[in-house]
């Protein structure tokens, strides 16, 4: 029987810590400044020991030899291509950090700090690349990306990161920030830096005027899209009116169209505080997040955020809410080789 999880593993960032930062290149040979070969050998062993502990706790089969081979090959290939440089001093700090915190499924703050800049990319903007590690400034100012569907391959591409401008009432805006499960979620478009209205300020970015306007009271006219802010907390937009959010056991389907059209669609914003939309159920309803052991069809239904399925086809069986796991059987068997792809893995952008 195959057990599949609806939530991806959170452990994929360990190798990422070895390739972030912009330290000066260096090489060495003593215990505090290991050579590149010595670092790769010991770092691979330490990382795979952590991976093995996590896989064992989750009940997943694991091959330490395969894991070490995967990590060793990945790191050696970057050096062999000459697209990254190695900082021996950072390598020594990183090894000591791993030794000090065995068995961690996620990178500790010390590991993140001390492994910063072990390897750094050398490729300039526009150079052909195989993954982001090779690009100078990755991940703060460059990524390895395809330019378009007709592109011959990915190249090092500059990215822009900047803090949003907090707009006041009546000022021009490009989007809105609203709290989503305790995390501020921002929807915006246009130029950088984004100029945003904040729900917590009682404002939203009105599409008709592109200015920050006061939130709309229950019963007031609003834009038709329910998942975009505009109504006061406790209300959502349906049929172009702000209506009350739904309670436990009530439908979380929202008609996003205007009459005479009908376009019911599940919405995470349809349910009141403490409730979630069980959108994968035959009848989407607002429910209280379920405890471990409860049946589920999506992770949103579980208080833990984790839904285990006993089959490959999730349409043909129901899952069970359970404690969050850090690994999957596939990742443990492969030694997390897939997670080392800095081109596509967003965890590489979340480790700092």
Walk me through what this model shows.
The chain has a domain at 4-161 and 327-349. The protein is 18% helix and 20% strand. The chain is of the alpha+beta class and 352 residues long. It starts with a strand and ends in an 18-residue tail after the last helix. Residues 1-17, 19-31 and 336-352 have low confidence and may be disordered. Strands 1-19-20-18 form a four-stranded antiparallel beta sheet, with no helix packed on it. Strands 6-9-7-8 form a four-stranded mixed beta sheet, with no helix packed on it. A two-stranded antiparallel sheet has the order 2-3.
What's the gist of this structure?
The chain has helices at 36-57, 64-81, 88-100, 109-114, 329-334; strands at 4-5, 84-86, 119-121, 142-145, 155-158, 165-166, 175-180, 183-188, 195-198, 203-206, 211-214, 235-238, 241-244, 253-255, 264-266, 276-278, 285-287, 295-296, 307-309, 319-321.
In terms of topology, how is this protein built?
Elements: E1 4-5, H1 36-57, H2 64-81, E2 84-86, H3 88-100, H4 109-114, E3 119-121, E4 142-145, E5 155-158, E6 165-166, E7 175-180, E8 183-188, E9 195-198, E10 203-206, E11 211-214, E12 235-238, E13 241-244, E14 253-255, E15 264-266, E16 276-278, E17 285-287, E18 295-296, E19 307-309, E20 319-321, H5 329-334
Parallel strand pairs: 6-9, 7-9
Antiparallel strand pairs: 1-19, 2-3, 4-5, 7-8, 10-11, 12-13, 14-15, 16-17, 18-20, 19-20
List keywords for this structure.
about 350 residues, alpha+beta, four-stranded antiparallel β-sheet, globular
């Amino acid at each position: 029987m195959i057990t599949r999880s609806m939530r991806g593993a959170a452990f994929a960032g360990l190798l990422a810590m070895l390739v972030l930062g912009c330290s000066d290149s260096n090489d060495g040979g003593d215990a505090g400044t290991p050579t590149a070969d010595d670092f790769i050998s010991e770092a691979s062993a330490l990382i795979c020991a952590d991976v093995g502990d996590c896989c064992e706790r989750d009940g997943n089969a694991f091959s330490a030899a395969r894991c070490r081979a995967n990590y060793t090959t990945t790191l050696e290939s970057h050096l062999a291509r000459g697209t990254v440089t190695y900082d021996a001093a950072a390598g020594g700090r990183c090894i000591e950090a791993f030794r000090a915190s065995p068995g961690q499924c996620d990178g500790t703050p010390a590991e993140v700090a001390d492994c910063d800049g072990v390897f750094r990319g050398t490729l300039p903007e526009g150079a052909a690349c195989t993954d982001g590690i090779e690009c100078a400034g990755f991940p703060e100012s460059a990524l390895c990306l395809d330019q378009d569907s007709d592109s011959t391959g990915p190249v090092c591409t500059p990215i822009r990161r900047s803090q949003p401008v907090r707009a006041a009432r009546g000022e021009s805006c490009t989007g809105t920030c609203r709290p989503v499960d305790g995390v501020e979620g921002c929807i915006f478009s246009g130029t950088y830096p984004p100029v945003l209205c904040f729900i917590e300020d009682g404002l939203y970015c009105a599409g008709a005027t592109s200015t920050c306007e006061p939130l709309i009271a229950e019963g007031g006219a609003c834009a038709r899209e329910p998942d975009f802010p505009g109504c006061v907390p406790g209300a959502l937009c349906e049929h172009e009116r702000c209506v009350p959010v739904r309670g436990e056991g009530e439908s979380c389907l929202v008609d996003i169209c205007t009459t005479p059209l009908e376009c019911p669609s599940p919405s995470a914003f349809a349910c009141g505080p403490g409730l979630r939309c069980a959108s994968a159920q035959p009848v989407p309803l607002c429910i209280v997040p379920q405890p471990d052991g409860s049946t589920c069809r999506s992770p949103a239904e579980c208080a833990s955020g984790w839904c285990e399925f006993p089959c490959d086809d999730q349409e043909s069986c129901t899952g069970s809410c359970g404690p969050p796991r850090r690994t999957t059987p596939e990742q443990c068997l492969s030694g997390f080789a897939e997670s080392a792809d800095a081109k596509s893995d967003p965890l590489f952008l979340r480790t700092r």
